[in-house]
From TrEMBL:
Residues 5-127 form the Cytidyltransferase-like domain. It comes from the Bacteria. The gene is tagD. It is an enzyme of class 2 (transferase). Its EC number is 2.7.7.39. Keywords: Nucleotidyltransferase, Transferase. SUPFAM superfamilies: Nucleotidylyl transferase. GO terms for molecular function: glycerol-3-phosphate cytidylyltransferase activity. This is Glycerol-3-phosphate cytidylyltransferase.
Length: 135
């Protein structure tokens, strides 16, 4: 069984997220999504999510491509996650290209950067909603 792992916040879930999860799952037989906790998002990125962790986890668990959702509490946990879950492929969107290449040097996992869905992003949704408020 080929195991795949990906990381993200997955706030304001949209079809770009679904595309990424589908394509990540196509890389193997079992997909683990490591979901950023609210504390991690605030501490590391100064980002506050619209949906709290438990709600975002519930949404991800309802997606057929996702087999397991676990929390992301730190940037450093990635190597341990890959080793603990015996991951074959580490998948991220291509906006992270090159940032996780070190995982191939420290584990047996292959790192793959998948193209993002270009016309949609959570950031763009937030900007569009803000613009509509001021109309």
């Amino acid at each position: 069984m080929k195991k795949v792992i990906t990381y993200g916040t997955f706030d304001l879930l949209h079809y770009g997220h679904i595309n990424l999860l589908r394509r990540a799952r196509e890389q193997g037989d079992y997909l683990i999504v490591v979901l950023s906790t609210d504390e991690f998002n605030w501490k590391e990125k100064q980002k506050k999510c619209y949906f709290e962790y438990d709600k975002r986890k519930q949404l991800l668990e309802a997606i057929r491509y996702v087999d397991l959702v676990i929390p992301e509490n730190s940037w450093e946990q990635k190597i341990n996650d890959v080793k603990e879950f015996r991951i074959d492929k580490f998948v991220m969107g291509d906006d992270w290209a090159g940032k996780f290449d070190f995982i191939e040097n420290e584990t047996d996992a292959e790192v793959i950067y998948l193209p993002r869905t270009p016309e949609i992003s959570t950031t763009q949704i937030k900007k569009d909603l803000e613009a509509k408020k001021s109309e």
